[in-house]
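Severity: low
Component: inverse-folding endpoint
Summary: output formatting inconsistent between runs
Steps to reproduce: submit the following structure tokens with default settings.
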């Protein structure tokens, strides 16, 4: 039985990422003070992974405008991330840090390690500026994710964080009505 990580603080980690043509050190401290997305995928040089990362790269500018940093993570090394970045036109679009997690520590911290394979599930985590996990999405390896829907989830998380007492209904989009839970709403939705 697993325990949900929703509203828990991210655990400490240190890793090397490929970012902007360089190898850079990243830790949980880099995620504090802003909204973050940690986007786990199984492996470089695979099939569904580049489609997901390319899709996320297409929304990166919008996420940056929203004050969100993206960190992709796989159990590959930062060297493999560079090689993939250099070899693939799709991966060349990526401007966010690509964290290498060859020991699996970060992947295990977030509960998405497939131990028998040494690979990560497709796990997405939205983290608030205080380092608390607010959204978790986990997929089987054959099911790709949607960056467009991820943006909507971040928008909803940011909205409720700044509007105490309000909640976002299904398929909510910015500018649409929210709900204020109360006794008056019970049985009327």
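Observed output (run 2 of 3):
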């Amino acid at each position: 039985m697993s325990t949900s990580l929703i509203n828990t603080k991210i655990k400490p980690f240190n890793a090397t990422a490929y970012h902007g043509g360089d190898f850079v050190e990243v830790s949980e401290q880099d995620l504090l003070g802003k909204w973050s997305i940690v986007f786990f995928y199984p492996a470089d040089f695979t099939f569904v992974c580049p489609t997901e990362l390319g899709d996320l790269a297409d929304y990166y500018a919008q996420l940056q405008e929203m004050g969100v940093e993206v960190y992709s993570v796989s159990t590959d090394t930062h060297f493999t991330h560079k090689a993939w970045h250099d070899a693939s036109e799709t991966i060349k679009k990526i401007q966010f840090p690509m964290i290498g997690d060859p020991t699996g520590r970060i992947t295990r911290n977030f509960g998405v390690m497939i131990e028998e394979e040494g690979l990560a599930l497709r796990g997405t985590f939205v983290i608030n500026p205080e380092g608390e996990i607010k959204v978790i999405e986990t997929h089987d390896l054959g099911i790709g994710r949607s960056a467009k829907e991820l943006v909507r989830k971040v928008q909803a998380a940011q909205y409720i964080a700044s509007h105490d007492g309000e909640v976002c209904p299904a398929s909510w989009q910015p500018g649409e009505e929210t709900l204020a839970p109360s006794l008056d709403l019970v049985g009327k939705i």
